[in-house]
Amino acid sequence: MKYIDLHTHTNYSDGGVSLDHSLKEAEAVGLSLFSVSDHNTVAAYSALDESRHLFSGAILPAVELSTTFKGDVIEILGYGIDVDKMSTLIGENYYSFYDKQVKEARLDAEAMLAAGVTLDAEFVRAMTEEPWTIFDPSHQNNRPYLLAEMKKHPENARFFESEEKFLALNPTQFSRNYLFNAQSALYSDQSSLSADLPSVLDMIKKCGGLSFLAHPFIYSKNVLSSLDVLATVGLDGMECFYGTFTAEQKRFLFNFCEEKGLYKSGGSDYHGIKMRPKNPLGYSGGEKIPHSLIEPWFKKVERSLI
What pLDDT does 130 receive? Predict the structure, then answer.
């Protein structure tokens, strides 16, 4: 039985581990096929020559591109891409990772203030001016810090269903269900930070790759209620196996793709076990991801293997 992981991140974007660490981990797990799919960058592949010996399996070039759909932030995975072409297109359509973090923090702070959220003046200054004094944007986005700052002020609970849910909220839930959700009072419009959805799909196609909607169940209900629409926009497939998906969620997406004639993919969304302990490399909901999941489309990208 062969196993895969086509969704991982390194510290070339927001991962907490190096390329070498990821390759060693993929080898230890016994994967036959592996991808680094960093956010809006393929820089890890420029360093691969020096590290390639650390993993004995095949490597499928990949990227995870941010975009928006109905105002919400979503991500599209591109597989089997020409890395050099993608690097050029990313340079033409996206900010550098650092610049995106800077602009993102400003947008988020301004959106919170416009909504009436209480934030300390010094925190707002640090979010909107350089150099930042609160965190290092080269490795961490601003949301954990923003949420922690909001929780310092009990009056901010009024934006949530209850004080208990507000205090229990984690940064991922905060991002997906509030900041990235166009139906939320705390919505922060991120559309200026990325290419639009048709452009993203075109970028992947120009690079000879296939496009997959990443982790559908991670998004807000605004997106989940529109999966039928997303199935018609030109995607090649959807990520059916994902680090934290339950058996029921995987079964739903598998059947949905079968019904809509879409390909299936799978990955852990590994960022390093310290950063995301629930997303170990090579696993989806506690089980390894079988290579058989991608056999219907693997021949189309096999030429790009490294």
Answer: 73
